[in-house]
Amino acid sequence: MVNTFSPAYQWPARQEPLPAAPTPFRYAEPPGIGLVRLKFRLLAAVSTEWAFRAAWRLFCTPQRLPRKKWEDAALATARAFRVPFEGGELAAYEWNPQGRRTVLLVHGWEHRAAFWGVFADGLLRAGFRVVAFDGPAHGDSPGRLTTLPEFGRATQAVVDYMGEVWAVVGHSFGAATTAGLPVQFNRAADGTLPRLVLMSAPGSTPAVAQRFADLLQLPAAVVQRMGRFIREQTGRDAESFSLTQAAAKVPAARVLLLHDCQDESVPFSEAQDIARSWPGIEFQSTTGLGHNKIMRDQGVIQAVAQFLA
């Protein structure tokens, strides 16, 4: 389908209703899910704690997908470097080091820096210096499990290593990481990030956990135990990491929110919730690009490059 942008929406200055998603949200079930559900049903019958531990491990373990040829081509034009992080090093990449302004790209769950190849190329042609990295337990960075706070600390490490950043583009989990914690930018200056782009972003952290729980058909007691564990580990409720709570915490001069009406991973309604909760955010919807193709669509890339200018 051809990508079509709706007009940008300003909140609360504009009063028009947000565009509605044309089709109901459906979470695609992976093959073999029946056996996984049976495992957790048996575990929960024996011990809520055992079921919680197994569920949390699964929740925090990304798959390392095989690298595709187009990814190798994208990285072949980049300068690879490493960023020290918590006893190890993150894999990072830089394109166009002489670019006039620096844009950091933060990938989503089970993605990696190479997934930004087409997007990075569009920003290079617009004259930007582009940096991307593999998050913990992703790509060529170490680790087997990771969490939102750890991913955020990794993003902070890359930002501190780079110095001044003009803009950040975060996709999905990367958007939640950047704005939900939030990451601190340009500490040597006034702390303001000139441009922030959130793509395919989940609006509610508890909703993400609930989708995971619904997929596995976890009992409510296990879901509640996950919530308590997050509070114990971070000192914060899961809801405090939600992007619907982020507006007052993110010192960004301008923020652009992009979401596809037919996103198969994050419901479009969550983008609407973010837009309603974030005064001044610029909201653009697409149709037919889903959760990932939005990263490779030339119309989207051009719109982001213009926003970053």
Task: Fill in the keyword field for this structure.
about 300 residues, alpha/beta, Rossmann fold, 2 domains, hydrolase, AB_hydrolase_fold
Explain what you see.
It comes from Hymenobacter jeollabukensis. There is one protein chain. The protein starts with 8 loop residues before the first strand and ends with a helix. The protein folds into two domains: 32-61 and 205-236, no CATH class; 67-204 and 242-308, Alpha/Beta hydrolase fold, catalytic domain (Rossmann fold, 3-Layer(aba) Sandwich). It is of the alpha/beta class. It has helices spanning 33-46, 48-59, 69-76, 117-125, 148-162, 173-180, 205-216, 220-234, 268-277, 298-308, and strands at 9-10, 79-85, 88-95, 102-106, 129-133, 167-171, 193-199, 252-260, 282-286. The longest helix is centred in the middle third of the chain and has 15 residues, at 148-162. Helix content is 37%, strand content 17%. Residues 1-16 have low confidence and may be disordered. It has a nine-stranded mixed β-sheet with strand order 1-9-8-7-6-4-5-3-2, sandwiched between helices.
List the helices and strands and how they pair.
Elements: E1 9-10, H1 33-46, H2 48-59, H3 69-76, E2 79-85, E3 88-95, E4 102-106, H4 117-125, E5 129-133, H5 148-162, E6 167-171, H6 173-180, E7 193-199, H7 205-216, H8 220-234, E8 252-260, H9 268-277, E9 282-286, H10 298-308
Parallel strand pairs: 4-5, 4-6, 6-7, 7-8, 8-9
Antiparallel strand pairs: 1-9, 2-3, 3-5
Helix pairs in contact: 1-2, 2-8, 5-6
Pfam family, one: Abhydrolase_6
Protein name: Alpha/beta hydrolase
InterPro entries: AB_hydrolase_1, AB_hydrolase_fold, AB_hydrolase_sf
